[in-house]
Design a protein that fits this description.
Layout lengths: L1 H10 L9 E4 L13 E4 L3 E5 L2 H22 L17 E6 L7 E4 L5 E6 L5 H17 L7 H10 L3 H7 L1 H4 L7 H6 L7 H19 L1 H14 L1 H9 L4 H15 L2
Parallel strand pairs: 1-5, 3-4, 4-6
Antiparallel strand pairs: 2-3, 5-6
Helix pairs in contact: 2-3, 3-4, 4-8, 8-9, 9-10
Amino acid sequence: MFALLVALLIQTPLENPPPGCVIHQTRTPVTVRAAPPAAVRSVNFLVEAPDSATAERVLAWCEAMRSELLRRWNSAPADHPNAVPPWPRPVHVVVHRHHPGFYATTFGGDGSVTITLWAGDLHLESTVRHEVCHAVLHLRYPGRYIPRWLDEGLAVCQELPDEQHRLLEPLRSASRRFSVRQLMLIREYPREVLLFYAQSYSLTDFLVKRHGEAALLRFLEASFNLGQEAALKQVFGYADYEALDAAWWSAFRSENP
């Protein structure tokens, strides 16, 4: 994903969505042009791809990631029949033969969800895991505002380790960074999008490792009514954005001297 981010940011105007992004269409349903020829379907996903082997492989990755997340996030025991309930309608996954310009999970105003991928992606499994996390998170909290940093940070947490390591490089080499206050209040993808992805992942990973993934979801749920800063104090015990900034940055510097 990191190499793709670099390549696309060189070619793509900033007003276009960055790769690996979340798009909400409040009025127009999602449409897909020039759908690939091969299609496979499960209860939760409809995958179209240039060939049946790719379609089957992507479908397996999608279902595995969805099940993994729901089993971790749901309170029911893993073997309980309601641990991984089916979605009311399948998510449409389109794997394009030619590069579509960006990777995205798009939420339509009609309730549809479309994941856009590229068959030539050298890290396709990692990208699938990233985009399916977006779908699972937003379908878990429909209509709720999910902070951009947490949305992307949690998605990167599902990627494969090599991709995560590469994605952190802009933060390791940066001469400046976002403060946690700035990062948490970003609602649209910023110009420094590589740094944004790196820092969002690093902060999310810090919170998950220190407090647990369940606590992160409790923070998200608390933020719906309290706002993020008050939720930080209630769930994690940080007095404010600056207290979290100090704790996270100290940990990052010690791990990346």
